TrEMBL record:
MF GO annotations: oxidoreductase activity
Transmembrane helix found in the keyword field: no
PANTHER family named in the record: 3-OXOACYL-(ACYL-CARRIER-PROTEIN) REDUCTASE, 3-OXOACYL-[ACYL-CARRIER-PROTEIN] REDUCTASE FABG
Assigned EC number: 1.1.1.-
Family under the similarity heading: Belongs to the short-chain dehydrogenases/reductases (SDR) family.
Name of protein: SDR family NAD(P)-dependent oxidoreductase
Top-level EC class as recorded in UniProt: oxidoreductase
Organism: Camelimonas fluminis
Keywords linked to the UniProt accession: Oxidoreductase
The keyword Lipid metabolism is annotated on this UniProt entry: no
Superkingdom, taxonomy of origin: Bacteria
Length: 249
């Protein structure tokens, strides 16, 4: 029997990469996004898609219900949908914090709450997408960093509470991952390129599928004794300090 994964933010970027990797590994996937399914997946026999706004509690509940109606079970929930590119602290307003919390935190809590009965039955898993920015001190991202730190806290809290029910709960903390917006920012912002690319020991930007592989591993039986961890997938960025200048290599 094929296992079933629900992936949020499934129509583009990291979410689309996650979907493709799960399908490659033989899962059936139920995607949720504000946008329709990517054209490459529209006719895939193991993919179903639901358009929804996860800022709304009803849409979060309907996402889980839609997955169960389509595939009959749920083995993995991947909470990927999120909002990035925040501003410096003194330029960040209360409305900014509410906007980031509404998509980066509140849907994670709701989706986990609605999914846990099905995951307890299947002895499944949750993989939350946090961020390397939630692991280290980073400025100029005032609304983003606290929400991703919250995702890490949610992960460890749920792992503590639901491990005895057979539900494994972990998080992935991506570094800089390729997207059209990322590519443009690297080309046009020297400071960002130096911090995020030259400041990464592997010296490159990650690919969405590399996040997908980490998620698929954590959701698989191969990770059966991995629980409550936050796995950085960032080319070493979050642990790197005092990298030598390129001329020294």
């Amino acid at each position: 029997m094929k296992r079933i994964a629900l992936v949020t933010g499934a129509s583009q970027g990291v979410g689309l990469g996650i979907v493709r990797v799960f399908l490659k590994h033989g899962w059936r996937v139920f995607g949720v996004d504000q946008k329709p399914a990517d054209a490459s997946l529209a006719a895939h026999e193991d993919y179903a898609h639901q358009v929804g706004d996860l800022r709304e509690a009803a849409d979060c509940e309907q996402a889980i219900a839609g997955c169960l109606a389509s595939f009959g079970r749920l083995d993995a929930l991947v909470n990927n949908a999120g909002l990035g590119n925040a501003r410096p602290f003194l330029e960040t307003t209360d409305d900014d914090y509410e906007r980031y919390y509404a998509i980066n935190v509140r849907p994670v809590l709701r989706l986990c709450r609605f999914a846990l009965p099905a995951l307890k039955e299947s002895k499944g898993s949750i993989v939350n997408i946090a961020s390397a920015f939630g692991l280290v001190g980073v400025g100029v991202s005032a609304a983003y960093v606290p929400t991703k730190s919250a995702v890490i806290g949610i992960t460890t809290m749920l792992a503590t509470e639901f491990g005895r029910d057979g539900v494994r709960i972990n998080a992935v903390a991506p570094g800089l991952i390729w997207s059209p917006g990322t590519d443009e920012r690297i080309r046009n912002n020297k400071w960002w390129r130096r911090m995020m690319v030259e400041g990464t020991p592997l010296g490159r930007v990650g690919q969405p599928e590399e996040i997908g592989e980490a998620c698929a591993f954590l959701a698989s039986e191969n990770a059966g004794f991995i629980h409550g961890v936050v796995l950085p997938v960032d080319g070493g960025w979050s642990m790197a300090k005092f990298l030598p200048e390129p001329a020294h290599f």
